[in-house]
Amino acid sequence: MKFKFLILIAFSFFLSSCFKKYIVTEKEIKQHYDTLGFKPNYKVQKGLDYKLFTATFGLDTLQPILFIHGAPGRWEGYRKQLDDTFYHSKYHLLAPDRPGYGFSYYKKKHKKVSIEKQAQLLEKTFELNLSDKKPIIVTRSYGAPIGAYMVAKNPEKYAKLIMMAPAIDPDNEKFFKFTKYGKWPVLRWFIPNRFVTATDEKYDHVKELRAMEDIWGKITIPTVVMYGGKDWVVTTENFEYAKKKLPSDSTKTFIFIPEAGHRISRSHAELLKEEIVK
Q1: Residue 257: which CATH number?
Q2: What angle do the packed helices 115-122 and 144-153 form, to 10 degrees?
Q3: Which of 136, 162, 273, 164 is nearest to 223 (CA)?
């Protein structure tokens, strides 16, 4: 019994080190921006039961772009866009940590938050913007249904929605062999918090996507859906789901990129820029 326990502990440390290599630390972020001529302007919004941490770039009087990251992730996952000074001169960039990730939370840190509640909280980031211009929402993966929910509930508030590799089809949620480890109580002590949140989010995702199936027909603003042919995280059925569920009109654009993987915002940053500024 003792031997099995030691094996479990050893495995926990091994798993923890594997996950950590995918995490960019605060020290690394600081070192990165120390080499550039600009830095993020960090904003913290607090309420009785939430904290919302957002990295901003550009003047707050410009049109806002809200970047919603996937799972696991943080605001810095969009650095390819956030570090592009082209955007700084034309837009106010808002890159929050989603509730349950990084420095943002709702009620309890590092806890899964529903799509609906995340949408409500992320709308508060627009309080940081002083323009009267309609925001553009840029999303990827697990961030896509959150952005879609925001737009469907208040389409008149937004200018455009972009979804890259959207995880939106409840019948085609992809699970991985390592996903289950995040449910093991002992291992949760060793796995970085964002992976614990991502695990909890994944196991509730199908139910949440089914609950919002009726929202897609309410997205009436210009919408771009991008998917890579080499995406191993989100299945192609999600791309087909978007084409089936979104209203079929001239405001919808579907882009299939055969050579792209899951991280379209990095591999095809210029293509994303084209779609943002159109």
Answers
A1: 3.40.50.1820
A2: 70
A3: 162
